[in-house]
Amino acid sequence: MTKLEGTKVRVRFAPSPTGYLHIGGARTVLFNWLLARKSGGKFILRIEDTDRSRHVGDSVAKILDDLRWLGMTWDEGPEAGGDAGPYFQSERLSLYNEHLARMLESGDAYYALETPQELETMRENARAEKRILSYDRPSPIPTIEEGEAAKRDRKKVVVRFKMPDEDITVCDDILGDVTLKSGQIEDFVIQKSDGFPTYHFACVVDDELMKITHVLRGQEHLMNTPKHVAMQRSLGFTTPHYAHMPVIFNMNGSKMSKRDKEKALKNGDPPPEIDVNDFRVAGYLPEAVVNFISLLGWNPGDDREHFSLGELVETFTLDRVGKTNAKFDREKLLAFNTNWAASLDFGLLFKAFCDFLSASENIPQEIRDADEKKLREALKACSGFRIFPDVIKKVGFVFASDNDIEFDPKAVKKVLAKNENAGYAILDHMITRLEALADWSVGSIERLINDVCEARDIKMGNVAQPLRVAVSGSTISPAIGDTLVLLGKKSTLARIRKCLMNREPK
RNA sequence: GCCCCCAUCGUCUAGUGGCCUAGGACACUGGCUUUUCAUGCCAGCAACGGGAGUUCAAUUCUCCCUGGGGGUACCA
User: Fold this and answer.
1) Is strand B within 7 Å of residue A391 (CB)?
2) Which string of b and e fits A108-127 if b means at least 16 CB within 10 Å?
3) Displacement of CA A114 from its chain's centroid (Å)
4) Model confidence over A318-339: pLDDT tens digits?
5) Catalytic residues of A
6) Is the CB of A90 under 7 A from strand B?
7) Is the CB of A247 under 7 A from strand B?
8) The domain that contains A269 carries what CATH number?
9) Which CATH number belongs to the domain containing residue A484 in this structure?
10) Which residues, in sequence order, are bridge partners of residue A22?
11) Which residue range(s) make up the domain with A480?
């Protein structure tokens, strides 16, 4: 349809500043970003802030932060600059107005003077008469002079695009040709009464001016595209490649929306992760999130499932993007995270862990303040964890002060008090042995425990479990050698002593 | 209502007319490993929505039905 061959690929992601980046939006960014990186093109970030009523304060900073966390960098846009700026639509009003004037003069757009009440009446009538279009093009169409006069009279005036009476075919790289018959789309608003352009108009002007070659967006935009194509023809613009991606839903088929969080909170359930930031705070790795969403609507055509961002750049092609909507399976994401946690370079894993500690709420202060070396060792001792909160659950006690250990009554009963305080008896013995242990290392601690087991002809668990409960208060901790080394000799002995003091008399 | 898109295990998906007794992954079930919690390993369960065609042969092509989704704003 258009001659874009030979032109450098330029794609964009154009979020509205209404909050954090949505996980579905993240998938849209990812595919756009991959297309750019794959082809050596440019990835542009544009902020679509034309609806002032929906604008949320620091959204832009949040979205940028989410993108950085995911590892996706932009070549042009906020903070990055670029030749096609400004990259905030609210700063491009004069650009829109220029093109608007052209369309007004050519007669492809016109001032419309109807009041909201009049529009509502039109809609009701259309519904009653089962007509397709609810907006009746005025006859005669108001002249430019009439429109401007109405504006001077402080009347609410909008500009509408005169939808041409012809079939429009959208050539979609994913869906194929989609034709919309003439007469299906009414004259739509391109400039609101507050002087701001609507999405459709701003988007078309910006894509042209920013020389966007490929528009990859969610399928919810498919029916907008004929409108955009019609405007492009009116303005003599190039029509970019279009590709509409399948939508992502909850497991129950509903849309993934922020409302899910409010609903869950009301019912006392844990809120589901919806925004990228939710996953970050919940202790997921960006590598896992990226890997997982990359497979929602795309696959390499073989059995591979484990992809880093770099591997995705190598493997990704638009023609492997599917057409079917997908459901977001958190169980599978959890599995991906587990795999990534196990396979990621430890330096990167630790960096991600620190990010989690600072980003997430409910992290005990003593862990936030903990010594880096000790944190590293703690994380290492937790291999096999699924998400970062598991690490806290498993080694959090190490960072508490010795006097703050709370003993889980169930664990005490099962491991220490059972069989006439057998566990306490072991601790009585172990405390002197450990005290005498000069080399406080995993190897020598395990050797000691082994010796005790052999001497008394008992199983490892009979010694390890009482120790575990004594130092952690629960039956959950890393391997016993790791646990005691992490804790250090002094704390270990102090905690065992304290535990022994709590022994119930027989 | 009207317009548009989609349709393989519970979920993400492979499959492009015979290689399919439909493959992989998650989940699930059973077993193994293990000093706790996890992890890991092995095995099993499990799908072509329905109906007409086309063809020697349809999961794969066509049509209809059904189902799901999207759009129908001075939101993007």
Assistant:
1) no
2) bbbbbbbeeeeeeebeeebe
3) 41
4) 999 999 999 999 999 999 999 9
5) 258
6) no
7) yes
8) 1.10.1160.10
9) 1.10.10.350
10) A275
11) 402-501
Question: Is residue A397 one of the residues assigned to a domain?
Answer: no
Distance of C1' in B29 from CA in A167, Å:
55
- Residues A318 and A463 grouped into a single domain: no
pLDDT at A135: 92
pLDDT of A432 above 80: yes
Q: How many domains does chain A have?
A: 3
Question: Treating both helix axes as pointing N-terminal to C-terminal, what angle do A480-487 and A388-399 enclose, rounded to 10 degrees?
Answer: 50
Which nucleotide lies nearest residue A383, CA to C1'? Answer: B39
Looking across all nucleic acid strands, the nucleotide with the smallest C1' to CA distance from residue A54 is B75
Averaged pLDDT of chain A: 94
Same domain, A236 and A264: no
Q: Are A235 and A213 in contact (CB under 8 A)?
A: no
Q: Does residue A241 share a domain with residue A274?
A: no
Helix orientation angle between A23-39 and A286-294, rounded to the nearest 10 degrees? 80
Query: Which nucleotide shows the minimum CA-to-C1' distance to residue A474?
Result: B36
Protein CA A134 to sugar C1' B2 (Å): 11
Contact A322, A355 (CB under 8 A): no
Per the structure, the residues numbered 260 to 289 in protein chain A that have their CB within 7 angstroms of any atom of strand B are none
pTM value is 0.94
Based on the fold, state whether residues A146 and A285 are members of the same structural domain.
Answer: no
Instruction: List bases, strand B, within 7 Å of protein CB.
Output: 1-8, 10-15, 23-27, 34-40, 68-76
pLDDT in tens, A60-108: 999 999 999 999 999 999 999 999 989 999 999 999 999 999 999 999 9
The strand B neighbours among A residues 435-494, by Cβ under 7 Å, are 446, 459-461, 464-465, 468, 475-481
R_g of chain A computed on alpha carbons: 31
The domain boundary residue, chosen from A186, A212, A245 = A245
Q: Is the CB of A377 under 7 A from strand B?
A: no
